[in-house]
């Protein structure tokens, strides 16, 4: 499970960079740029959720061992 969470986090961060490359800073609300912006927000959200899960599992294991 540990490896899976880290792989998913790396994929999510990679998706952020991929979607950032799709952004057009001159007109950020145009079609392709809007899709890239939505992708960045979705990937950032999934990264935050995965990192929260990783931290909560570490806390749980410390509590369980105490």
Please give a structural write-up:
Helices cover 83% and strands 0% of the residues. It has 66 residues and is mainly alpha-helical. The chain contains 2 helices and no strands. The chain has one domain. The two termini are 22 Å apart.
Poorly predicted runs: none
Topology as a string of helices (H) and strands (E): HH
User: What structural class do you assign from the helix and strand content?
Assistant: mainly alpha
Share in helix: over 70%
| Rg for CA atoms | 16 Å
How much of the residues is beta strand, in percent? under 5%
Element layout with pairings:
Elements: H1 2-21, H2 31-65
Helix pairs in contact: 1-2
Summarize the structure.
The chain is mostly helical and 66 residues long. Helix content is 83%, strand content 0%. Helix 1 (2-21) runs antiparallel to helix 2.
List its salient traits:
0% strand, mainly alpha, elongated, 66 residues
